[in-house]
Amino acid sequence: MKDKVRCSWCSNNILYKNYHDNEWGVRISDDRKLFEFLILETFQAGLSWYTILKKRKNFINAFDKFDFYKISVYDIRKIEKLMNNKGIIRNRSKIISTISNAKAFISVQKTYGSFYKYLSDFKNKYSNPKDHLDPLNNFSPLAKNISDDLKKKGFKFLGPKITYAYLMASGIINGHQTDCFRYLELKS
Description:
The chain is mostly helical. It has one domain: Endonuclease III, domain 1, CATH 1.10.340.30. The chain is 59% helix and 0% strand. The protein contains ten helices and no strands.
């Protein structure tokens, strides 16, 4: 039996396949899940996604199931506890930016009703479908515009490349290659 055609980044590793086939690129409208993906993308910067997938359960536990309200009030004791947690990526800048991003995330929710609405409105207002046709790019004008806007809103450690990866992972844009079996399934 012939294996399904997947995006070229998806190796034969079962962790990658499961993530690709079941999560990556599926439209997320739940704000807690959007926050989880945002934080995981920031921790992934400079590392392989496989590293994040292997440590994902540890991240969920360490960061209170990505409850942005709880994270927004983390103090120095919690930061030190996270810095000593061998199950996650122990990068002080990324941990501190997670706290800052939780605060900014809550602010965006209050202003727009939800983070999902903010992303959707932004995409609908400023997106040109040709901006993100090539899923192998690691940048798009839409991602740069969103990244710039999020920085103005207080987000840290979130440049255009991370934002682009985030938009594809969370299904805001369809990043699957056109020959991938998920491309047509998720085309909206």
